[in-house]
Amino acid sequence: MTFGQWFSFRGRIGRKVFWLGYVLPLFLASLVAAVLDAAIGLAPTGDAMPVDAATMGPFSAVVSLLSIWPSLAGTIKRLHDRDRSGWWIGAFYLLAIVVGAVAGVMAATMPYSPEAMAVPLIVGGLLVLGFALWLLVETGFLRGTAGPNRFGPDPLGGQGMAQWQQQPAPGWQQQPQQWQQPQWTPPQGQGGYPPQGWQPPPQQGYPPPQQGYPPPQQGYGAPPPGYGQPPPGYGQPPQPPPGQWGGPGQGGSVPPVRRD
């Protein structure tokens, strides 16, 4: 992480970078500033300081002011890693300001009624505390979304699908690719020609899939031979059996003649 990325509000960071890259350096800087204030004697200690005096020395005050921007940057990028907007940290500070303003107004208008101020201050304090605990768990202990999200790629290298990617419409099916016959390449012999007696190997695998219905055979739909023609002898008188006279002009044997 570069120095510019450390101050940037864009992108995502994991829990390890948040604790080791933001929380630990800022805590060490505050500790060193407090030690310097105490060593030089600039830090107010004991009962010597008045009630309304500042509770930190000049070194601690400068470090606290300089820590505002990087602390916001680290917290916002951890919220991005959880796929949450960085404005949640703004909502937390807004809630704290509102509760503090309400407490100030109530202290100014009701200085002698601590019982009336107790319930609103307790409720406001619990809201701020609950919000702070939620931010601590979200930014410090929970893993970010797996894969890229709307704020950038996964800092841990997850390959999950981006949540904002459009899903295919219901019922959509990918068009099948056209089948191609595999091509056989003959081995190269001397002069670039295949060796003598080489034959291509037999076709292996499944034949190409048929598309559509097979074409009809030749003569499909034509009537069979003799369809619609009368059978042989249709419309002619039946022939008498052999040996019987069938009448004049019908052939057959001559009728017997009686002779007295």
UniProtKB/TrEMBL annotation:
Residues 197-243 have a biased composition (Pro residues). InterPro entries: DUF805 (IPR008523). Keywords: Membrane, Transmembrane, Transmembrane helix. Residues 161-188 have a biased composition (Low complexity). Pfam families: DUF805. The chain crosses the membrane at residues 17-36, 56-76, 88-110, 116-137. Residues 148-260 are annotated as: Disordered. It comes from the Bacteria. One of its GO terms (cellular component) is plasma membrane. PANTHER family: BLR8105 PROTEIN (PTHR34980:SF3), INNER MEMBRANE PROTEIN-RELATED-RELATED (PTHR34980). This is DUF805 domain-containing protein.
